[in-house]
From TrEMBL:
InterPro entries on file: ERP44, ERp44_PDI_b_2, Thioredoxin-like_sf, Thioredoxin_domain
Domain Thioredoxin: 1-127
Organism: Trichinella pseudospiralis
TM stretches of this protein: none
One Gene Ontology term from the biological process aspect of the record: protein folding
Cellular component annotations (GO), alphabetically ordered: endoplasmic reticulum membrane; endoplasmic reticulum-Golgi intermediate compartment
Protein name as annotated: Endoplasmic reticulum resident protein 44
Single Gene Ontology MF annotation: protein disulfide isomerase activity
Keyword Signal: yes
Keyword line: Signal
Signal peptide positions on this chain: 1-19
UniProt-listed Gene3D superfamilies: Glutaredoxin
Keyword set includes Signal: yes
Length: 399
């Protein structure tokens, strides 16, 4: 039994390290991706002409990293692996997703589709991004204004803490800047967050608690709920995820906290498939007009799929358990899009309770409910930033 397990692990390692291109399916996906530092995965369909054009280029790029166990170029045939396509919300071909240490990155690869571009991109991803400093004072001079800045003092570079920090720096290389002071006395170890506008914040839990370290750094580098502005809107769009946006009154910051709390409670498992955002309703009055709303209607919650905007029916239901999550799930299942084109899905009433001979039974006959709720829809204000149809086969009009 032990030999069989060893053989399976060895075979997996050998296959990952030596194969030019790894064909992924639901059986091997997590095993391969979970042990790989950088994976570039091509979600494709054989009938898609853009997928056909990409295939030989992608294969040649993969061959350039043959024998490097840190890198996997993977392919997923979405027609054969519909579960994986659904899991990662694939709705255009080809979709190129990045996985770092087993976790899917928010931003897809949308660069040039050439061998040299792929090779350069992966080479850049493998580069060490932690800046080593000689003293803490020098960090202030190196801070990057538009990114989170993380500073760590580490005693031992062979320690689990340093290994964890290196993985975090790789995972958040596009969102955070990492600085490190090495070989300090063990009692001097610490982890700090530097902000250009706020006070320095120190991590207060045990540095031996690597899960807590991961969570703390993750929240600093990439807050679950972010503000969208005119300056960062295009960058957020490039992440390739639809938007869940709360439009709020500038003097009503309490609703942002309520919204953030509900996202934390209901939507943590959806963070890789949708961006949670809030926007100043005065600044973004134009999207409100598309929804038939104005400043006096704030707060307003909506999904922007980069084709349509779907209005959350009643903001009072924001704190009703499950309501917000169902709204997001209806986007991913295609229900919101389908109802926009075909009208509301039939809804059946709950089976009434009937008592017969002192036994409780249910009347299972389906009874349509009249006037089911229809989610108001408007055209997206971000439609010009959707994926180009000269590069993708889009399965439906939603990202």
């Amino acid at each position: 039994m032990l030999y069989a397990v060893y053989l399976q692990i060895f075979s997996l390692y050998f296959f990952t390290a030596s194969a030019k291109l790894v064909v992924l399916n639901k059986e091997n996906f997590d095993k391969v991706i979970g042990v790989t530092e950088i994976a570039l995965v091509n979600f494709h369909a054989d009938w898609c002409r853009f997928s056909q054009m990409l295939a030989p280029v992608f294969s040649e790029a993969a061959s350039r990293f043959q024998g490097d166990p840190r890198v996997v170029f993977g392919t997923v045939d979405c027609d054969k692996q519909s579960e994986l396509a659904s899991r990662f919300h694939i709705n255009k071909y080809p979709t190129l997703k990045i996985f770092r240490n087993g976790e899917v990155a928010r931003r897809e690869y949308r660069g040039a589709r050439s061998v040299s571009a792929f090779v350069q991109y992966i080479t850049d991803q493998l580069a060490d991004v932690i800046q080593i400093v000689t003293n803490e004072e020098s960090v202030r001079e190196l801070l990057v204004a538009k990114k989170a800045n993380i500073f760590v003092q580490v005693h031992d570079t062979a320690s689990p803490l340093w290994h964890s920090i290196k993985k975090l720096a790789s995972s958040f290389r596009e969102d955070c800047v990492f600085f490190a002071l090495l070989h300090v006395p063990i009692e001097k170890q610490k982890l700090l967050y530097y902000s250009m506008t706020a006070n320095t914040e120190e991590y207060s839990d045990s540095l031996d608690n690597l899960d807590a370290v991961h969570s703390w750094v993750s929240n600093k580098c990439l807050p679950l709920v972010r503000e969208i502005t005119f300056e960062n809107a295009e960058e957020l769009t490039e992440e390739g995820l639809p938007f869940l946006i709360l439009f709020y009154k500038p003097n009503d910051k309490d609703i942002i906290k309520v919204y953030t709390d509900q996202v934390m409670q209901q939507l943590l498992d959806q963070k890789s498939s949708i961006n949670f955002l809030y926007a100043d309703g005065n600044t973004f009055a134009h999207p409100l007009q598309h929804l038939g709303k104005s400043i006096k209607d704030l707060p307003v919650l909506a999904i922007d799929s980069f084709r349509h905007m779907y209005l959350f029916p009643d903001i009072k239901d924001l704190t009703v358990p499950g309501k917000l999550k169902q709204f997001v799930l209806d986007l991913h299942s295609g229900k919101l899009h389908r109802e926009f084109h075909d009208g509301p899905d039939p809804v059946t009433a709950a089976s009434p309770v009937v008592v017969q001979d002192n036994n409780v039974v249910f009347d299972t006959s389906s009874k349509p409910v009249e006037n089911p709720t229809v989610t108001p829809v408007a055209e997206s204000v971000f439609i010009k930033l959707k994926p180009s149809q000269s590069r993708y086969t889009v399965l439906r009009d939603e990202l």
